[in-house]
Amino acid sequence: MLYDLSLRMSYSYDVPASGARHIMRLMPLSLSNRQRLVAGSITVSPTPDEQSHFVDFFQHPATSFMLRTPHETLDIRMQARVQVESQPIAADFSPLLADLPEEISDVWSLAPDSPHHFLGDSPRLTQAREIGDYARSCVTPQLTAMQIAHALCARIHKDFTYDSDATTVDTTPLEAFRLKHGVCQDFTHIMILALRSLGIPAGYVSGFLRTIPPPGKERLEGADAMHAWVRVWCGETIGWIELDPTNNIPAGMDHIVVAYGRDYSDVVPVIGVLKSYGGQRAVQAVDVIPLK
């Protein structure tokens, strides 16, 4: 499937901001046998006074830029064309949960995709007993690592309600867990913590999701969204799989990967600091348009 993507992120400030420095991770990745970035560009207005590019630890291209001139608005636009490949349905050759630690210990690599990076606490994720108890309630001894991941994905989808007004970007996983309401970031963080509490390596995926309008309804421009889902390591034979607890589906041809990380802090689309005071408003619009 070939997609044209467009993203606009606009910020307006009550008081002109100055001395702003930001980092962007917005461009989709090229991944072997998964997706290919055909072309892409990012524009920033006002034009940055400084700009540089780098690749972070998890091998994501990122752009850092600085604005010295006072500005009342910041407008970021990304356009890309991406080819997404269909993924074969993998048979479950993952180990039983009791056998998974041995397979993890057999991995000597500390490369960015090593399961060792995705087992312990990370900047936004600290183990919580309530989430661990919840995870253990889904487990029986005869389940494999892959079966447990699918079971948790389905359980979270069933038990939690999507509610964009219930949480913010800074809501902790435990707060969202107790609310039983939230958005994709919350459900992804909860599932990651649940899996890690069982000793299953799990990480965060940031990307785009193509949304399909209800029958008889026209697609609304800008109505698609940046999305988050879970990456789970299911043993040496299977490796990594990706599951979307918001929709209770495996990540497929409608999921376009931008970045992998331990949690949201590793993949924030735009993060930075600036000199200002008062409030600010942010608007985001995303289009994911299939071409064929």
Q: In sequence order, what are the helices and strands, one letter per element?
A: EEEEEHHHEHEHEEEEEEE
Classify the secondary structure makeup into a structural class: alpha+beta
Q: Rg from C-alpha positions?
A: 20 Å
- Poorly predicted ranges: none
- Helix proportion range: 10-25%
Distance between the termini: 6 Å
Total DSSP E strands: 14
Provide mean pLDDT, rounded.
92
What characterizes the major β-sheet?
7 strands, antiparallel
Overall geometry: globular
What fraction strand? 35-45%
List keywords for this structure.
292 residues, alpha+beta, seven-stranded antiparallel beta sheet, five-stranded antiparallel beta sheet, 5 helices, globular
Describe the structure.
- The chain has 292 residues and is an alpha+beta fold.
- It is 17% helix and 39% strand.
- It is built from 5 helices and 14 strands.
- The strands form 3 sheets. Strands 1, 2, 3, 4, 5, 13 and 14 form a 7-stranded antiparallel β-sheet that branches. It has a 5-stranded antiparallel β-sheet with strand order 11-10-9-8-12, covered by helices on one side.
- Helix 3 packs antiparallel against helix 5 (184-197) and helix 4 crosses helix 5 (184-197).
- The radius of gyration is 20 Å and the shape is globular.
- The protein starts with a strand and ends with a strand.
- The mean pLDDT is 92.
Give the arrangement of secondary structure elements:
Layout: E1 2-24, E2 35-45, E3 50-55, E4 61-67, E5 71-84, H1 100-105, H2 129-136, H3 145-159, E6 161-162, H4 173-179, E7 181-182, H5 184-197, E8 202-209, E9 225-233, E10 240-244, E11 249-250, E12 255-261, E13 270-275, E14 280-290
Parallel strand pairs: 6-7
Antiparallel strand pairs: 1-4, 1-5, 1-13, 1-14, 2-5, 3-4, 8-9, 8-12, 9-10, 10-11
